Amino acid sequence: MTIKSRTKRNTVAAVAALGVAFSATAAGQAGAQPAAAPAEQQSAAAPSYYLKFDKGTVTNSRLSLMRSVSGPDRVIKSYKAGSGTSTNTCAVGKGWLPNGKYRIEFRRTNFDGLINGYVIKVTDKRCHNGTKRTELFIHSEMKPNGGQGRIESEKWTDTNPNDYYSNGCIKLDPKNIKALFAKADSLGWSRVKGLVVTS
User: What pTM was estimated for this model as a whole?
Assistant: First the structure.
């Protein structure tokens, strides 16, 4: 056999082998499945929530626990609430809260101070003329242990006096603030992003 014949035969064999290899690779690619998405992409984002205070009157407004969704946000729970003794948002210790967004600084179920028991402390806020409103809480009237006491500041009454009045905070009756805490506990407080006050 000549060198030319051997070269031609080797070339044919190489082309055939390359064809087999290409066919095997193509078959493997055809049967391959796309890589799975990371677990964090497959799972839905955790829902987030916030508190919303809708002003009506100083003794008859609404505090709602809201869920953020696409479109109008969803009301999870809503409670009657009061705020202040005046609608002047710049009246320190008297006016209801200025509109806007607030962060939650802390929450307690055993707070012991001028107010007691279940409290949510929110950030300070300046009103429209620049006056800084401080010591802003969501609270009720109760003893530090959450029970009802004998003195006025630790005993809830709907009339004579109307205990929805406050010194500029947001106020709920005892059973409703406890219900709010229970619901937020079940959802996870880390998902409750703050307070929004609107007129």
Answer: 0.78
